[in-house]
């Protein structure tokens, strides 16, 4: 093992932004499936031999990636992905639990557009882990322009980080339909209540949804065209097909698959999630204007 060394796995925009940030204070490596022209790019075997790993691969690919590539050798891991596995409805911490012990893993949450992080603009993140020692070790890697906070509420941070992407799609639809800022603010506020209600069922803490991981990330993602999921909503409101939207996006919009996962879990546990439900129906082809009528009626 390369003691004391850190590597980012996944070279999408968020992975590259984290690599940039972590490189501010020490040498940081980065690896992905395809070769990128990035400083300190290494092959996967080299990256996996580092003591500290930041994994920034899409949520829907994580289980397969772990099965095919990962062998636990006491690495310390920070997960930078946000989402719920659509095929099973499983949370990422449950998927990782089959490969990494609790004391060796943490999860990043909080408002953080990659485009701003890579410009070294101020940012605050929560590192969620059952191990305060793990937080202390990872927090030292982050640059001065990123303030880090510690939380033990892993499930709360996971749900907030995943759910806000679905709500961002809804907010983009609201904007695309020109419904006005009153409607958009109402939607986001009710969305915050909805995801807190969903989280409560799984034991998440209410405070998590009122802080950086919940309200902070939601307000950011649901209010800007810098958000991929928000842009998905805009496209749907304009009558574009989901296939065309995703083709134009050229990036992963985690909210699309997460909407499916939330629907599965809501149906399974009878949780009231009206906004997420309508987003899923719109993604499946329902007219957004009909969804608006149904939301107001119900």
UniProtKB/TrEMBL annotation:
<feature type="active site" description="Proton acceptor">
    <location>
        <position position="164"/>
    </location>
</feature>
<keyword id="KW-1208">Phospholipid metabolism</keyword>
<dbReference type="InterPro" id="IPR036291">
    <property type="entry name" value="NAD(P)-bd_dom_sf"/>
</dbReference>
<feature type="domain" description="Glycerol-3-phosphate dehydrogenase NAD-dependent C-terminal">
    <location>
        <begin position="153"/>
        <end position="288"/>
    </location>
</feature>
<feature type="binding site">
    <location>
        <position position="114"/>
    </location>
    <ligand>
        <name>NADPH</name>
    </ligand>
</feature>
<keyword id="KW-0594">Phospholipid biosynthesis</keyword>
<feature type="binding site">
    <location>
        <position position="14"/>
    </location>
    <ligand>
        <name>NADPH</name>
    </ligand>
</feature>
<feature type="binding site">
    <location>
        <position position="82"/>
    </location>
    <ligand>
        <name>sn-glycerol 3-phosphate</name>
    </ligand>
</feature>
<keyword id="KW-0444">Lipid biosynthesis</keyword>
<dbReference type="Pfam" id="PF01210">
    <property type="entry name" value="NAD_Gly3P_dh_N"/>
</dbReference>
<dbReference type="InterPro" id="IPR006109">
    <property type="entry name" value="G3P_DH_NAD-dep_C"/>
</dbReference>
<feature type="binding site">
    <location>
        <position position="217"/>
    </location>
    <ligand>
        <name>sn-glycerol 3-phosphate</name>
    </ligand>
</feature>
<feature type="binding site">
    <location>
        <position position="227"/>
    </location>
    <ligand>
        <name>sn-glycerol 3-phosphate</name>
    </ligand>
</feature>
<feature type="binding site">
    <location>
        <position position="33"/>
    </location>
    <ligand>
        <name>NADPH</name>
    </ligand>
</feature>
<dbReference type="InterPro" id="IPR008927">
    <property type="entry name" value="6-PGluconate_DH-like_C_sf"/>
</dbReference>
<feature type="domain" description="Glycerol-3-phosphate dehydrogenase NAD-dependent N-terminal">
    <location>
        <begin position="36"/>
        <end position="133"/>
    </location>
</feature>
<dbReference type="Pfam" id="PF07479">
    <property type="entry name" value="NAD_Gly3P_dh_C"/>
</dbReference>
<dbReference type="InterPro" id="IPR011128">
    <property type="entry name" value="G3P_DH_NAD-dep_N"/>
</dbReference>
<protein>
    <recommendedName>
        <fullName>Glycerol-3-phosphate dehydrogenase [NAD(P)+]</fullName>
        <ecNumber>1.1.1.94</ecNumber>
    </recommendedName>
</protein>
<keyword id="KW-0520">NAD</keyword>
<dbReference type="GO" id="GO:0047952">
    <property type="term" value="F:glycerol-3-phosphate dehydrogenase [NAD(P)+] activity"/>
</dbReference>
<feature type="binding site">
    <location>
        <position position="82"/>
    </location>
    <ligand>
        <name>NADPH</name>
    </ligand>
</feature>
<keyword id="KW-0547">Nucleotide-binding</keyword>
<feature type="binding site">
    <location>
        <position position="252"/>
    </location>
    <ligand>
        <name>NADPH</name>
    </ligand>
</feature>
<keyword id="KW-0443">Lipid metabolism</keyword>
<feature type="binding site">
    <location>
        <position position="164"/>
    </location>
    <ligand>
        <name>sn-glycerol 3-phosphate</name>
    </ligand>
</feature>
<keyword id="KW-0560">Oxidoreductase</keyword>
<feature type="binding site">
    <location>
        <position position="112"/>
    </location>
    <ligand>
        <name>sn-glycerol 3-phosphate</name>
    </ligand>
</feature>
<feature type="binding site">
    <location>
        <position position="228"/>
    </location>
    <ligand>
        <name>NADPH</name>
    </ligand>
</feature>
<comment type="similarity">
    <text>Belongs to the NAD-dependent glycerol-3-phosphate dehydrogenase family.</text>
</comment>
<dbReference type="InterPro" id="IPR013328">
    <property type="entry name" value="6PGD_dom2"/>
</dbReference>
<feature type="binding site">
    <location>
        <position position="229"/>
    </location>
    <ligand>
        <name>sn-glycerol 3-phosphate</name>
    </ligand>
</feature>
<feature type="binding site">
    <location>
        <position position="254"/>
    </location>
    <ligand>
        <name>NADPH</name>
    </ligand>
</feature>
<feature type="binding site">
    <location>
        <position position="228"/>
    </location>
    <ligand>
        <name>sn-glycerol 3-phosphate</name>
    </ligand>
</feature>
<feature type="binding site">
    <location>
        <position position="110"/>
    </location>
    <ligand>
        <name>sn-glycerol 3-phosphate</name>
    </ligand>
</feature>
<keyword id="KW-0521">NADP</keyword>
<comment type="pathway">
    <text>Membrane lipid metabolism; glycerophospholipid metabolism.</text>
</comment>
<keyword id="KW-0963">Cytoplasm</keyword>
<dbReference type="InterPro" id="IPR006168">
    <property type="entry name" value="G3P_DH_NAD-dep"/>
</dbReference>
<comment type="function">
    <text>Catalyzes the reduction of the glycolytic intermediate dihydroxyacetone phosphate (DHAP) to sn-glycerol 3-phosphate (G3P), the key precursor for phospholipid synthesis.</text>
</comment>
